[in-house]
Design a protein that fits this description.
alpha+beta, 4 helices, 25% strand, binds methionine sulfoxide
Length: 163
């Protein structure tokens, strides 16, 4: 059973706790979809000001909506399109502080103001992306990038052991 805890106020402590919980939660799971689903749930539980979190997965040469937490979202994103498709193509994390000023942004929820997309590689091949949205401007910083890349590395290691 997942035990709810009182969350720390500092971003660093919150992420440290999220990472410890993530390892406990997904290390012994043997189903890729369950691992991805629980990862999104844990991120949504720990991080304040996140309106949507989910994976887009590389299927048939484009990104398809995977496990997520939040409102229904766009189901297909072409490679290079939107923040997700760009992060996938460039194999780099992208932080968008104000989506209204970012030309290559796909709006799934009109209230979204900022976004971060982190690449997910498995066995050194692009597997998908992790996408977080917020209703706050500039919600995501280099600190989020640092820790969310660790989150994706943990997920990547566990997924690689299942393939
Ligand atoms: N905004 C994303 C699309 C996915 S939704 O935010 C869930 C993008 O520009 O790729």
């Amino acid at each position: 059973m997942f035990k709810k805890i009182s969350l720390p106020t500092s971003k660093k402590e919150t992420y440290e706790l999220l990472i410890t919980s993530l390892k406990e939660l997904i290390s012994n799971d043997d189903c890729i979809m369950s691992i991805l689903a629980n990862t999104t749930s844990l991120i949504k539980y720990f991080l304040k000001g996140v309106s949507w979190v989910g994976f887009y997965l590389y299927v048939d040469n484009r990104l398809k909506l995977g496990p997520f937490q939040g409102l229904p979202a766009c189901t297909t994103i072409e490679i290079g399109r939107g923040v997700c498709g760009s992060a996938f193509e460039k194999e780099q994390t992208i932080i968008v502080k104000d989506v209204r000023k970012h030309t290559n942004h796909i709006a799934c929820d009109a209230d979204t103001k900022s976004e971060i997309v982190v690449p997910l590689k498995v066995n050194n091949k692009m597997y998908g992306v992790l996408d977080l949205d917020s209703y706050q401007l500039a919600r995501f910083t280099k600190t989020d990038q640092y820790y969310l890349e660790i989150v994706c590395n943990i997920v990547s290691q566990i997924l690689s052991s299942l393939m």
